[in-house]
Specification:
Blueprint: E1 4-6, E2 9-11, E3 16-19, E4 22-25, H1 31-52, H2 60-76, H3 79-82, H4 87-105, H5 113-120, H6 125-142, H7 146-151
Antiparallel strand pairs: 1-2, 3-4
Protein name: RNA-directed DNA polymerase from mobile element jockey
Length: 169
Amino acid sequence: MGLLWFDGEHIPRSKSIKYLGVILDCKLSWNNHVGEILKKANCRFAQLYPLINRTSALSIRAGRHMYLMLLRPILTYQSSVWGYTEKSKVNKLQVFQNKVLRMVAHAPRAIKRPVLHRDLDVPSIKNFIINLDARFYDKLETIDNEIINLLGISTSAPPLCYSKRIHTH
């Protein structure tokens, strides 16, 4: 590939770039982005730990609200862009959510994830992303904006399944 120049300056190639808080890599694998999300979420979790640990006097309801307001936005920021990545990457975020919700609810590991989510009324990460996207596309249909219409942006949500990697030999 040729060199990239702008205004007489050579622009070096990069394996990844951060744009509007989303880390894009050359293969759109989202490895770096999901890793960065988990790093940020773990830092925030460490700050909140004294308030939401199993021995905390904070109520389950308040701990749930802290998760929803302070941690889930980190996990799902710009998920419309990267949320339909490989299932294994979304599962890493789900494992983090499960850990926090178990701590908030003072629940033992024997409690199954669906029960924990039902009792706390918190959807799985995958379902939250799907619902978030559906609401976005529903609102997009009602916007009367010439620029959006000129772009020809589809107002239908992406398919509700994870993409499968195609292997070529």
